[in-house]
Amino acid sequence: MDSELAFKTISYGLVGLIWLTALALLWISMRKEARYGQPLRDALGLIVAALCLCAFIVLVAAYVQKTRSLRKISHRIEAATFDDKLPPWSLRTSQTKSIEPAKRQKACYTGRRSDVAIYMRHLRDLIVRPTLKALDPEIPYSQNAECLVMETIAHESGVGTYLGQYPDGPARGIAQIEEPTFSWLKDLTSTRYQSIGTKLFQLFGEPEHGQLSARLDLSVAFCRFRYFIVKEPIPDTLEDRASYWARYYQTTNDPQKIKNYIDDAKRYL
Fold it and tell me: How is residue 235 annotated by DSSP?
């Protein structure tokens, strides 16, 4: 039995027992007074004492329950704080404690904002990072690649606010990929990048452009594939990645669009 439930049961049982005892004394006192004209001595004092004891038990029970509730909240906060320091989900095994903190990779973005379509930490940990790692080694995983994909999603769709190009454009998915681009990438998997085509088939079957809005992982995979075919390495800084996005993903080098990319990354991430 749960200790808290047992404590409540005992407390209520004691209160009930004391009340029954007080009522019994009162009944005996009334009977004795009616029959012999001699009320039970100190009956009133016993009843008052019983009431005070009941009140004391109730206050103690309330105090104990409040203390346990505060302790549970404290434990949850400590657990949440510790969870932020854990490595990626794929490493959260029974061996996590053996991993030295110095070897844990620093998170690309903390995702502390909650006023967005998709909570950024969930997007990173549950969609982007697992998908990028599933593509490895055919498409190697890297921290810069993860940051680039997340920034692209933040700018292109407002972190999943739009699953189609607003208001009625042809692009689909959180990475806003148009059908000609999708078909071009798909064709490449049957010629120059057959190993990647095999990997994509293993993960997604026969992908179609219309699935991008419903399958966030598919959208992430093709976004990463689009950047992978670029021979230039992914830059280390946000500003350089914004120019990289403009050249190879947006295919324009408009300074205003580069500024918008940077602003959206800072706004959403």
Answer: P
